[in-house]
Structure formats: structure tokens, C-alpha cells
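Page 47, continued from p. 46.
Same chain as before, 226 aa.
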Amino acid sequence: MATSTTLPIEALITTRCRDLGLSRADIVRRAGLKNVEKGIRRLDGLYAGDLNKATVLIRGLPAALGLPTETVDIAIKETHQQLEEAAQIAAAERDAEWRATFKPCAYLLGTETRPTQIFIFAISGGAERWLRIPLDLTQPAVTFAAQAHAVVRTTPVVPLHGATVGFVVNYTPDCAVRFDLNGNPVEVFDRAYTPGQVSIKIGRRKVPAEVLSRMLGQVPEMDGEW
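Result:
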């Protein structure tokens, strides 16, 4: 997890390197890592907040920096706390943005919760193409279930998800209702339903399915027709 703020562990290492006149390569070697190039990548990852891949490097830091293990442990603990706080802030910002742009919508439900062919599902538009049911939002919310049910009646099979078993209508960010094949409400959720998200990793970047499909020219813009 990358962060724009200097983490406590990076501050400790860079300060100690300056005091001792050590280079990044020196730190890696003194920490006991024989592959210096790989060790520097782990150091860069550590500075970016990826503690999981730097466990070997972290174990060697007390010796590399000439510091008590407790000093390094405190810096790691403070780094964990800072990363968690940053993640919470980012999550709150994403939630606020999502709420600000939320629009009621509906999704098909099939017997399979995961697409049977994930790659094909991803590059061909993902949930927004295959599962989303377009709603006429100029109509009252009380009509949304009937609108979605009309689509369900003519959709016996959900593409890549098996036989249709029902649908979900997201009325607000904090209210969604699952309906059966007959349009009867069977479950109420206290948060809008989100189908499983599929992304494709290109290099180090994860691209959402719908974004990738548009890049590839696979999916036309939704025009309200199913």
C-alpha cells in the first residue's frame, strides 16, 4: 500500500543511514540479504508500506542499523498504525464519493455467484454489462422492482452465471432488496448490493473489467436496452 507520507520505518532507516554513512545497498547487505538488487526492491516496497514482502529484510534491520530490536519493532508497529489510519481515511473518502454519485440500480442473480469464465467475463464488460438491469429512474422507486422483474421474466439464464434465480434492487446506499423469480421480496440488506468485482492486472496496475472492456472496444455504452 503506497503512501505519500514518510512512514516511521523509512524515517528510522534513512536517519540511521545518514548518521552511519550507509547506502541502500549497504543496508541490504548488512541485513543479510545476498541478492542486493532484490533486497533494494524489498526496501523500496517497505518504504511504500508493503511490510509483508519485506519480512526477511525487517528481521535483519537491527543488525543492519546497529540498533536494538525493540527500536525497530516500535517503528514497525507505528508504521502499521499509520498504514491502517491511511486505509481508513481512504475507505471513508471512497464511500463518500460512492454515496455522492449513487443511483438506484438492479442486478440479475444466477445460480453461480462467480462467473464460470472469469477472464471472458472481465474483458467483455463484467457485471455492468452482464448483470446490471437498466432502470428508468424518472419513474417512482416503487416501480423499480417491477421494471427489473420484467427483464428477469425474459432472461432465464444469466450469462456466465447459470440459471436466473432472482434479482436485487439497490434503492439507496443503505437499502437493497433481493427478490425471487416471481418478484417477491425475500431479503433486505442494509447496504447496496455490489456484484463481485473482476479486474485484470496489467503490469502492476489493476484495471476494472468494465474499464478494460471499453479500452478494448468490447462493450458499447449502456443505452437503456437489455
